[in-house]
Specification:
The protein has 114 residues and is of the alpha+beta class. The protein contains 1 helix and 6 strands. 19% of the residues lie in helices and 36% in strands. Strands 1, 2, 3, 4, 5 and 6 form a 6-stranded antiparallel β-sheet that branches.
């Protein structure tokens, strides 16, 4: 089944950095969650990665639009890590060795309980 990206609601620009220092732009696009066309009340959130080897599209299903969006971002993070390893590159965002697709609690203003 080929998934259409639809309306883009988020974009992240990364760089793939090879061992020799060569930098290649990588673009991550996330589409708006949509109701599952098969029915049943579930939702689907599509995403696409351009510039890291073969361009690829995917997405995730959830019981509502928020879960579909969160699972799509999670799938993106895992997929990017795997594809970067397979391509022998590291991914950078804003010059940092990370994709920025996870947000640690300190950045959210949360404090550990204790």
């Amino acid at each position: 089944m080929v998934q259409q990206l639809g309306q883009v609601v988020a974009e992240r620009r990364l760089e793939a950095v090879a061992a020799d220092g060569t930098r290649t732009p990588v673009t991550v696009l996330i589409g708006a969650p949509v109701p599952d066309p098969a029915g049943g009340g579930d939702w689907f959130c599509p995403h696409r990665v351009d510039g890291l080897g073969e361009d690829s599209a995917g997405g995730a299903f959830g019981v509502d639009s928020l879960q579909a969006l969160l699972l799509s971002v999670h799938a993106l993070r895992l997929g990017l890590d795997q594809r970067a390893e397979e391509a022998s590159v590291r991914l950078e965002w804003l010059g940092l060795p990370d994709t920025g697709l996870t947000v640690p609690p300190p950045f959210l203003g949360l404090r550990p309980r204790g």
